[in-house]
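B., you asked whether I could sanity-check this one before it goes into the benchmark set. Here's the sequence:
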Amino acid sequence: MVTSLALALDFGGTKAESALIDDSGRVVAGSRFRAPTGRDATSEHLARGVVSIIQQSIASAAGSQIVGAGIGSAGPINRAKGLVSPLNVPGWRDYPLRQTVVDTLADRGLDIPVTLQMDGVAITMAEHWVGAARGIDNVMGMVISTGIGGGLIVGGRVVTGTSGNAGHIGHVEVAGMTGESTFGNAGALEAIASGPNTVAWARRQGFTGTTGEDLAAAHAAGDEVAIRAIQRTGQAVGQAICTATALLDLEMVAIGGGFSQSTPDLFETIRETISHHHFAFVRKVRVLPSALSGTGPLVGAGALIHRASLLAAD
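And here's what the prediction gave me:
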């Protein structure tokens, strides 16, 4: 029996990953490959890495049928033109990622649909399909990692907006807090609460570690600065979720990404912050960790093909 597979590509601020996803939302064993990205990578280096991992995933298909390719990319994106400008990867500005994937597939004799969406949209679709938000029709998915992204399902339909950037909660402003000026807006959630920017704040308070992993370890050991840093990030994320819920009347927020796993205390602070909101309809929103561990972005990119009916037609 031939299995229908989706080629999934997740492009983020630290790495790009590709894999094959079956129609039940599972990553096919032996199909997952990774290439580094990052702030110092050149456009040529990034393109070579993406092409290489896609080729390796295709080669692992072993006779199964690849019916489409889904791309989840850090934003902002231009969905209509297939362009990406990931904030944490300066080497790509208005880069034609969709066409790169189309060309790579064509080189392997594959003429199949290729869908590009923001990575937050992909992870939200993954959580709605096989993750923490199954059966929930008003949900926001979030990624807290090198950057902060998000996506929305409202009334059972994916909301992507005119350009494809709806749900970009990382650039909602958080009142009363100031973060890093990396993107010219130190009041944005990402400037305050992403992994690297949380660490940057902690270092200004005397923390000597350099990574999110260092901060998580220090938090577990009871380091006072690390504890305050996680609390500050949780409060910022909680405020942003309150804003989104007040606007959209969300039932649930599912949060994934490496830095979201730093400590369960992060989720406790987020929930505590939400619990103080004035409106009961905001306080009722549930906040849960992703049920998909590190596979969520790839499963979500696969969902762009396997669950395409949730997406509005362009």
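One thing to flag: The two ends are 33 Å apart (CA to CA). Otherwise nothing jumped out at me.
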